[in-house]
Design goal:
heterotrimer, B: about 700 residues, alpha+beta, seven-stranded mixed β-sheet, five-stranded mixed β-sheet, 28 strands, about 25% helix, C: about 200 residues, 7 helices, elongated
Chain lengths: ~325, ~700, ~200
């Protein structure tokens, strides 16, 4: 492995300062980052060990809002009773990541900010994500690539918690040298057409310090459904994060965000509008699924994602609506 | 079958304690004083000529002790290619992962840094990935003389087997069925990546290496390094699996030896997981074109196979596509083309020639049974082999029992339905497939001595690749010596202390080295009867280099039938194996505990082959995309069903206490059984492995 | 497609002209890799050692503390052979830097037995033939240990979930699950079938 210096920041301010040093990089759980360093995908001189900062892994409720420290491990997050009860989709998403070992080390911020798992990027092809100027998947092996929002890069966003956070209308507290900014989750992630080299708006010397979840409205229920190509330790082939606000049998409002289909967590507002004020019947769920996939633009080998995603949306929606 | 005293009862491994306490020492755990670390630089191109290689900057890095490239090392790795001269470092490089240089330095990080300082200028050459494309006119010539790898006799023609007359067979058929299938390159993916330590003491070389055959490795190291065999010692105490890719000697052992010689210090060479996936070998990818003739009553009249196997650029394996011999049929023709390609090298992976061949064959047999409106089980019972290649009597055959008793345990009659029958998105289906594997006898050796305390020391050249071979040898010795197991001490894994043994490949250890143990035990018993136990520090010793009893025109074969039930979600393409029964005729089972582990493991590996695994290549660049456990989607705890094991213990007259081969047959019918179950569930067939979600939703669309 | 000029391939293949223009960074001025002094408690013993910042925990355990029971199968968090307990939680020691373990507690397979008495998990692994080649076994044991520490009587399905980050290419998952259930006293023929 390339040589680097590990630094343990005292606090967030110190971490931001150290991230400002030449060729510094933030390390959360480290599982993915160390692999990338070993593969020479990134070659940092300084590793800023964020888990050295105390208190960045707490869950707190303030005036109805739940605040989750970015450095909470995925395992702790998935077992946190308050999260499981009120923000089920996030607990389930965290629980679906990787393996127990990865969840014990991996952090929420790290999961949200992880780099793509496109096999071209991960195998050292000089693609957009690696600072190059092409996407090899377009004419290559694109079984797992984007059917929405692609171009010029066709990666899919690798995070499971990201769709959950967008579905929960979370806000991200980002700290940097100029202080703090709050970014709605949906605005945190960026399409390749805005910046093909990155997946989000985080600057190299900024850290995702916390995630704020608005108070769950009465009658809210949520779930995360993930399709994998083996029973564990793959990224989502497709996934659906669904939050429903129910009044008896009627859906007052819905937020539906798809994973594995686009370079960002892919929200489908049209479907949300379709569901508002309606009883979720099998027929409506089927219509919602059709609507969710309108405008899908598959590549040569990922057309199967269209019927797959439809099935996932329909079933997950129906299952959640019928949940007692 | 008569019960024996010690052998045949479930017995924990004699070295289990070491395996569960972390004290079993694998090669990577060893350190030798003054040891250097070595790493290998590899080709980033599918096919390229090295125009210039400059190691000066690497050489100048403090701590670097030796560097090898094709310019300063002309060692030929004899086991790396059966047909061509394959050097340790080749120019041109012929696949992404082909070795370009090796560096030894004081620590592994320095070795890696040095490796990255080596400057290589490549001239890229055209490449070809698909074996059929490689045979087309105009395809780049990967080895001199063309891309069809020659036969052992040097002829540029397919490997061919014929009996009867294939045209007569088709003429006799009421119906003729044709279809084609493919299977991908799959890596052995044993948990332990390659690592070796080479240490010179004057002109005496000691190699610590995880090998499936210390004896092969020993003679081949001597051959390739041009040393007298007595100058080489190979030691392997524990090794972390191989499934066929740690048999014979390998390039990394040779590199370590040459680096150690040049550096004047012992060298430990280590491969990363990705290197292990790409640079060693995996199962050869195949394309299979079957044509089968059958009478309306279901009797087979002709089986024809034309197959293509992608060998990578070097001929390290047979490239065979086998399985036809599980059927009785008067007219058979099999032609298989082993072809050079610019993919990773292909050679042995558990049951080398079989699982992919049986997948294609058993898929089409299932379709034929369906077309004839026959239960696929009945179809197999009708057509299964009775004589080896319809000619030789089997020494024992339990195939019918594997099918009948397996079906009973599986509740086949209750579970089977017409293909595709059912409603709703969730479909259940069942599949059966059968297989066979030669359990050949052959020469191996054993030395047993007994001391004054009545302790028996069994010296065998095995390494125990996970099969439990040490325990098997101990059980055979105990039974043959009529001694309690506690009185047996096994000495293994060191050519300095053990006699020649056949390598742990071809599932031969129990039958061949086990037979040598029986012979040595009998000799020793005679000596004890004659002379009594030795006194003081004396030993009585029996040395046997046993040739087996001749079979007198018979064939000795293990048989197997696997039954799988799957649940297919037709909307999401999700497949779950919900029930699995594996019925095996391996003669007498020496240790039912470890044998059960073998069967469960083989079936699990086969399910992974059916559903997940593929070393996928980018066609534009010729570079691999899915090396590693994540990329290959190797089976996990959650993917694995409970595998029920059923023993059909035939009375086998040959071999040690009637034991036949087991390790490799365990995977042979597994991919086909799963594929047939999926077909039964949905009434549609995916003909290209793996049966991944995209393909499944494709045929369902 | 000969346009693809590639910077990296397998680790150790990034040869070529590009690599030569990359200076060696991340080193101190003298050129020596950065080091840190750490204190780590391994199997109850406190170790104060100096480590290179880039060394993984697996590397330090195996190469510098002589605890070679934890194996390196992939070095990428994909196989689980290196699994150890870090402050009681199972993690991939190949995917942790040793400096990050400063002040923390590590348990490895070597710490499972006490005073020569095997852990019930080890006993069960022997009796039910958990290990085949044995290379993944230490990791399987440590994930099982982590599970039983907080769930002493798991179901078969809970065992599979808890151990799914541990690959066994010998495919002996059935026997591993059986072993853990036996150690936990929750193995019954009936439960084994249903789970």
């Amino acid at each position: 492995m390339k040589s680097f210096t590990n630094v343990n920041p005292r606090d967030v301010k110190d971490a931001v300062k150290k991230l400002g040093e030449p060729n510094a990089i933030a390390a959360g759980g480290g599982s993915d980052l160390l692999g990338m360093i070993k593969e020479h995908m990134v070659e940092p001189d300084v590793l800023v060990h964020l888990r050295a900062i105390r208190g960045l892994d707490q869950v707190a409720t303030r005036s109805g809002e739940t605040q989750i420290g970015g450095l909470i491990t995925l395992d702790t997050l998935s077992h946190e009773p308050a999260i499981r009860a009120r923000y089920t989709v996030l607990a389930e998403a965290a629980e679906s990541v990787g393996t127990p070992q990865i969840r014990n080390a991996g952090t929420l911020a790290g999961n949200v900010c992880q780099r793509p798992w496109c096999w071209y990027y991960r195998n050292g092809f000089p693609c957009f994500k690696a600072g190059g100027n092409q996407c090899f998947s377009i004419t290559g092996e694109n079984q797992f690539h984007a059917i929405f929002g692609g171009g010029p890069s066709f990666i899919v966003h690798p995070s499971d918690t990201a769709p959950a956070l967008v579905a929960l209308d979370a806000k991200f507290r980002v700290k940097g040298p100029k202080g703090e900014r709050m970014i709605p989750a949906a605005e945190f992630f960026t399409l390749p057409r805005a910046n093909a080299a990155r997946e989000n708006v985080l600057a190299p010397d900024e850290i995702l310090a916390a995630v704020h979840l608005p108070a769950a409205r009465p009658g809210t229920r949520s779930t995360y459904h993930k399709v994998m190509d083996r029973e564990a330790w793959t990224h989502a082939v497709v996934s659906a994060a669904i939050v429903l606000e129910m009044d008896q049998q009627v859906c007052k409002s819905a937020r539906i965000v798809l994973g594995g289909v686009a370079p960002i967590p892919w929200r489908v507002p049209k479907v949300e509008a379709l569901l508002a004020g309606q009883r979720i019947t099998p027929e409506l769920a089927a219509r919602a699924a059709e609507a969710a996939l309108e405008g899908a633009n598959p590549l040569a080998k990922n057309g199967y994602k269209v019927p797959l995603t439809k099935a996932v949306v329909r079933r997950t929606l129906l299952g959640l609506a019928e949940k007692a | 079958m008569n019960s024996l005293k010690t052998l045949g009862h479930p017995t924990s491994r004699i070295d289990a304690m070491k395996r569960v306490t972390g004290t079993a020492t694998y090669t990577g755990d060893l350190r030798v004083p003054g040891m250097l670390y070595a790493r290998v630089l590899r080709s980033p191109h599918a096919h390229a000529r090295i125009k210039r290689i400059d190691v000066s900057r690497a050489q100048a890095l403090p701590g670097v002790k030796a560097i090898l490239t094709h310019e300063n090392c002309d060692v030929i790795w004899g086991s790396g290619d059966m047909r061509n001269k394959r050097y340790l470092f080749n120019n041109p490089v012929r696949f992404a992962g082909d070795a370009v240089a090796a560096v030894a330095a004081t620590d592994r990080h320095t070795a890696e840094e040095a490796m990255r300082l080596i400057e290589v200028e490549y001239e890229k050459l055209p490449f070809v990935l698909d074996p059929e494309d490689a045979l087309k006119p105009g395809a780049v010539e990967i080895q001199a003389g063309g891309n069809l790898s020659p036969t052992a006799r040097g002829q540029r023609e397919p490997e061919t087997y014929r009996r009867g007359n294939i045209e007569t067979g088709f003429a006799a058929a009421d119906r003729v069925f044709e279809d084609h299938y493919s299977s991908p390159h799959i890596n052995n993916a044993q948990l332990e990546p390659r690592v070796a330590i080479a240490q010179w003491n004057g002109d005496q070389l000691t190699v610590f290496t995880p090998t499936q055959g210390i004896s092969n490795c020993h003679t081949e190291m001597a051959r390739d390094l041009k040393l007298a065999p007595e100058k080489v010692r190979v030691i392997c105490h524990y090794m972390g699996g191989g499934f066929g890719n740690k048999n014979q000697n390998h390039d990394f052992e040779l590199m370590a030896a040459v680096l150690a010689k040049n550096a004047g210090a012992p060298v430990k060479i280590e491969f990363t997981r990705k290197e292990d996936f790409l640079s060693v070998h995996g199962r050869w990818p195949t394309k299979q074109y079957y044509k089968i003739g059958v009478r309306n009553d279901g009797t087979l009249t002709a089986i024809q196979l034309r197959g293509y196997s992608g060998m990578g650029p070097y001929r390290k394996g047979t490239g065979g596509i086998a399985g036809i011999e599980i059927y009785q049929c008067p007219h058979v023709e099999r032609q298989v083309y082993p072809v050079y390609t610019n993919k990773a090298v292909s050679a042995n992976l558990r049951g080398p020639d079989y699982p992919q061949g049986v997948f294609g064959l058993e898929s089409l047999m299932d379709d034929i049974a369906t077309a004839l409106k026959m239960d696929p089980l009945e179809f197999r019972l009708k057509n299964m082999t009775r004589k080896f290649q319809d000619q030789l009597e089997y020494t024992s055959i339990g195939l019918e029992d594997c099918l009948r008793k397996g079906a009973e345990a599986f509740e086949w009659k209750k579970r089977w339905h017409a293909p595709g029958e059912g409603s709703g998105p969730m479909r259940r289906g069942v599949g059966v497939a059968m297989g066979s594997f030669g359990s050949n006898l052959g020469r191996s050796s054993a030395v047993i001595d007994v001391d004054a305390q009545g302790m028996y020391h069994v010296h065998v050249g095995v390494t125990d690749i996970g099969t439990g071979a040490k325990t098997t040898m101990a059980l055979i010795a105990a039974e043959a010596l009529e001694a309690p197991l506690e009185k047996i001490d096994v000495i293994w894994g060191d050519t300095g202390r053990c006699p020649y043994s056949v390598g742990e490949s071809g599932s031969r250890t129990t039958t061949q080295t086990g037979w040598a143990v029986v012979q040595a035990a009998q000799d020793l018993k005679r000596q004890i009867a004659e002379k009594g136990l030795p006194k003081g520090s004396d030993l009585l010793t029996a040395t046997v280099n046993a040739n087996p009893d001749p079979l007198r025109g018979q064939a000795r074969v293990s048989f197997v039938a696997h039954f799988a039930e799957v649940e297919v979600d037709t909307e999401t393409g999700h497949v779950k194996v919900t029930k699995y029964v594996a019925a095996h005729d391996s003669g007498r089972v020496v240790n039912p505990l470890t044998a059960e582990s073998q069967v469960k493991g083989g079936a699990t590996m086969g399910i992974g082959m059916a559903l997940h695994e593929e070393l996928l290549y980018d066609r534009a660049s010729g570079l691999p995309l899915t090396a590693g456990y994540y990329g290959a989607r190797i089976m996990t705890h959650l993917d694995t069903p409970e595998v029920d094991v059923l023993w059909i213990q035939t009375e086998e007259p040959y071999g040690p206490f009637g034991a036949k081969t087991l390790g490799e047959p365990t995977i042979i019918p597994s991919p086909a059984a799963v594929a047939n179950a999926i077909f039964n569930a949905i009434g549609k067939r995916v003909k290209d492995l793996p049966i991944s979600r995209d393909k499944l939703l494709g045929v369902l669309a | 497609m000969s346009k693809i000029s590639r910077r990296r391939f397998v680790e150790g293949t990034s040869a070529g002209l590009v690599a030569t223009t990359v200076p060696l960074r991340g080193q101190t001025k003298a050129g020596a890799p950065a080091k840190s002094a750490i204190k780590v408690t391994v199997n109850g013993t406190v170790h104060r050692i100096e480590v290179e910042d880039r060394w993984t925990l697996a590397e330090v355990l195996r190469d510098h503390l002589g605890l070679t029971g934890s194996k390196i199968g992939c070095d990428r968090g994909e196989c689980g052979a290196c699994t150890v307990l870090l402050d009681g939680k199972n993690v991939y020691s190949c995917s942790q830097l040793a400096v990050w373990a400063d002040g923390r507690t590590v348990e490895t397979v070597e710490g499972l037995a006490h005073n020569g008495k095997l852990d019930p998990l080890q006993e069960a692994f022997i009796e039910h033939d958990g290990p085949q080649c044995g290379f993944c076994t230490s990791g399987q044991l440590m994930s099982a240990k982590a599970l039983l520490n907080h769930n002493p009587h798991p179901t078969a399905d809970e065992v599979r979930h808890a151990m799914t980050g541990n690959i066994c290419r010998c495919g002996n998952y059935n026997h591993y699950v059986e072993s853990v259930l036996a150690a936990a006293g929750t193995l019954s023929a009936d439960a084994r079938r249903k789970a």
